[in-house]
Amino acid sequence: MLNVHTMLWNDVEDADLSPIRELSGDISVTCHSSVSSFLAQAHSAELVLTWNFESDWYAACPALSRIMTPAAGRDWVSPDPAGRVSISHGTFHGPVLAESLVEALLFMNRRMKTMLANFEERHWDRNLQTGCPLLADQTVLIIGYGNIGQACARLVHAFGARVIGVRRTPAASDSDPGSPARVVGTAQLDEVLPMADHVVLLLPGDETTEGFMSRDRLLGCRENAFVYSFGRGGSLRSADLLAALDHLGGAYLDVTDEEPLPPDSPLWQHEKVMITPHSSCVTRSYRQRFITEVCEHLAQLVPGS
Ligand code: OXD
Q: How far is residue 38's CA from residue 177's CA, in Å, rounded to a whole number?
């Protein structure tokens, strides 16, 4: 019997977890709605499905060999101090975030913030979008070109846009003829920054990315370029953005350096800024996508499943 414990959703329904139970009668799934309930039974847990895990919880889990978290980011599950338990992160976010990015690119490019204000005012302005270029005639720069960046590049490229990806170390496959993007290393960032109409940040949160999109880099963008923050908020500090907004076309922020963004942040009121609440990966199929990944993993572990 493989003992799976979950601390995922308080409203977890049988329908969410039944694909795991249906895999094999040799899998037992125990759902917890609180940390104390989990810790009280943690001795039997072999696989834990959770959003977060603190380093001192490992001591209560002698049988644990793996933690699977839906989150793409490394922020909420602490590594096992003894190095015994492996951690795997959801890898299903690419197509979800890519659709959110396309929504954001079109929203900014088509001046939808002003269009919505006009709508509220019942103001009929057919000329608002006369200056709006097509994405097909523009360049989108994606900073952070991992799985999610590549999924974004494929969708954006399908609109006909030119896509440039930036990552620490370009891979050999980046130069395949079918690659949706030209990919360059971080050392070339300053060279490609002024080429982009849209600059998309997909950076993880760590000490190397903190404040990465500095005021100088923002001012190094093309005049009227749009900046999008979809990775971790610390890579674009609010103060740097506010200092550069006159130069930019605008900013679309799904993540911010402080979350939730405080109600008194001047960003909320800025006419060039659109903000969404770190929701770019929120979608109806989120649970099902994660549970499918869990089942793929379990199918390799449990004989006869
Ligand atoms: C994640 C996120 O890490 O949504 O999955 O930010």
A: 50
pLDDT digits (tens, 9 = 90+) for 74-124: 999 999 999 999 999 999 999 999 999 999 999 999 999 999 999 999 999
Q: Nearest residue CA, atom 5 of ligand 1?
A: 71
Supply the DSSP string of 270-286, one letter for each residue. Answer: -TTEEE--S-TT--TTH
Q: Domain residue spans in the chain?
A: 2-90+284-301, 94-271
CA 171 to ligand 1 center in whole angstroms: 24
Coil, strand or helix: which one is 287? Answer: helix
2-90+284-301 maps to which CATH number?
Answer: 3.40.50.720
Per-residue pLDDT reduced to its tens digit, 213-263: 999 999 999 999 999 999 999 999 999 999 999 999 999 999 999 999 999
Residue with tokens 């930019």: 248
Pocket of ligand 1 (CB under 6 A): 71-73, 93, 281
Matching fold, domains 2-90+284-301 and 94-271: yes
pTM beyond 0.85: the answer is yes
Active site residues: 232, 278
Q: Which two tokens stand for residue 88?
A: 């795997």
pLDDT > 70? residue 206? yes
Query: How far does residue 97's CA lie from ligand 1's centre (Å)?
Result: 10
Average pLDDT over residues 196-220: 97
